[in-house]
Amino acid sequence: MTCGAALILDAAAEAGIRAVWQAAAQAGISSYMLEQAMPPHVTLIGGETLDMAGLREALRRLAAVTLPLAVDFHSLGVFPGAEGVVFLAPNPTRALLDLQAGVWQALSPFMTGVPDIYRPGLWTPHVTLGLGLASGQVSAMINLLSRRPSLSFNPVPRAARLTGVVFGEFDHGALMERVMLGALASQVIIRPVTTADARAYNRLVEGLDNETQFMIAEPGERKLTTWDQRKRLDAVLKTDNQMIFVAENPAGELVGLLGAMGGIYWRNHDTVHLFIGILQAYSGQGLGTRLFETAESWARSWGAHRLELTVLADNLRGLGLYQKMGFVIEGRLRGVMKIDGVYRDEFMMSKLLE
Amino acid sequence: MTCGAAFKFDAETDNAIRGLWQAIEDAGLPSELLKLKYPPHLSLMLCEDIDMEGVRRVLPDYIAHHPPFPLSFPALGVFPGEVGVIYLAPYVSRELLDFHAGLWDLLEPFTTLPSPLYRPGVWVPHVTLDLDISREQTGAIVDLLSHLDSLPHGGLANALFVADFPGDDTGVHELYVSAMGDC
Fold it and tell me: DSSP labels for A110-173?
């Protein structure tokens, strides 16, 4: 069976898009969209079901997506070709691309025949207005939508909200099952770690090592028992210039961390080395920024002078976050990490607290 | 004066886009970009004025740390309005958005009246094919272009330039240009 996940829109936007579908049918351009089982949507991924149990489990974990997302339907788009598609294009924000990448990453292992157009980096967010259009119909559709001398597509409001993720399984176009995902990540709290977190902290670190190459350890390499971790956290908490902040979701699971390790000698006491990790399902939702802000205000509170960190040179996302937080590149550490047998460079970055 | 920072492309992509401008002209439709004599480009930032001394101080290091971006166009776009804009819509990666956001943070202090349309979170990456076109002409140009088998693909945004965009027929006046990094 075919299946897919899509974002749905707020009521005003949905009504507006349905009105466009209706108008396109009345004008004899296309009635295809009106006949579909899905409401107006932005498809995140589509393909064939491979493992429904796996999909269900992945969907459960995806309940963390942050919604609603505000979008601006700034323009009309056309996928050209003999069977053209006319669509409404939202501005591609980082939050929207992150959300899609998270869904693709979570669901694609349990699907087959997922077209490349859903691969992060190749995904073009769009709400289809008309499909299978010959070229005269493409311009008819454009004209239908730009009748008014206005930036907004009457009747579709320009400012809209993406309010939910729907997963559906289809049999010959009929919607068999529909799962709504919630919006929990906005409820994630940031707090200092405690020794009682030792087990959850280990689980988080293990999850991070498995998910990304950007952590220092290989998957399974760290072998701290809960008791070891408890002692380590206790030592950190007893040191005046060291701290670990964690991000905790409403289910009590730790989903992100930021460690701040001040130097152990007087001369480097005011220099704080940072490390950060956020589970992919929770990335791109501002948690990194919140963790940094929390850590910085903690560091300022006791008079830290310098925050520093290293980042793999090709971790553009990390670089972007750190630059946004005011870190500057000080230099390149050549061949400092060996990952999958290849020596990779890191950047040394720092921020001075004045 | 309007000035700004924008990507330039590899020769093949550059030619392909000039070919689209020419195709619009050849069809008897107004092709404004040919008249403006701008090179094919993807604007990252537009402003009223920019302090080039500051730009020259901070920009080379930033560019050197970023390799060229892959550039392919899955779609055409239309900014509607009384007079419309038709553009090529590139694939948008998170890396591109991050690069753009970083560039803004870096250059904004040196700009006067930066256009809010190019602000991170608002910016819509686009390569303009035509502008100042009436609604009737918009439909005709879209029909013309959507006949094409494919839009330019497999290219690179491989250089960044800062220039004045005078809006007459003298082309852009380049103030700074650099190839993207080779890291």
Answer: GEE---GGGSTTT----EEEEEEE-HHHHHHHHHHHT-SSSSSBTTB-SEEEEEEEEEEEEETT
Q: Across the strands, what pairs with A254?
A: A248
8 A C-beta contact, residue A34 and residue A142: no
Strand ranges for chain B from DSSP E? 3-9, 42-47, 49-50, 69-71, 75-79, 84-89, 111-112, 127-133, 155-164, 173-179
In chain B, the residue whose alpha carbon lies closest to the alpha carbon of A78 is B76
**Radius of gyration for the alpha carbons in chain A, expressed in angstroms and rounded:** 24
Q: How many CB atoms lie within 10 A of CB A330?
A: 12
Q: Which one of A79, A151, A323 has the shortest CB-CB distance to B81?
A: A151
ipTM of the complex: 0.92
A145 touches chain B (CB under 8 A): yes
Chain B CB contacts of A323 under 8 Å are: 102, 105
Instruction: Give A133-189 pLDDT, tens digit per residue.
Output: 987 899 888 888 765 444 445 566 678 888 778 888 877 666 666 655 544 445 677
Out of B75, B98, B148, closest to residue A316 by CB: B98
Tens digit of each residue's pLDDT (9 = 90 or more) over B81-131: 767 899 999 999 999 999 999 999 999 999 999 999 999 999 999 999 999
Which tops the pLDDT comparison, A38 or B48?
B48
Q: What are phi and psi of A178, to 5 degrees?
A: -135, 125
Per-residue b or e along B59-88, where b marks 16 or more CB atoms closer than 10 Å to that residue's CB: beebbebbbbbbbbbbbbbbbbbeebbbbb
Chain A contacts in chain B segment 83-112 (CB below 8 A) = 84, 89, 91-95, 97-99, 101-102, 105
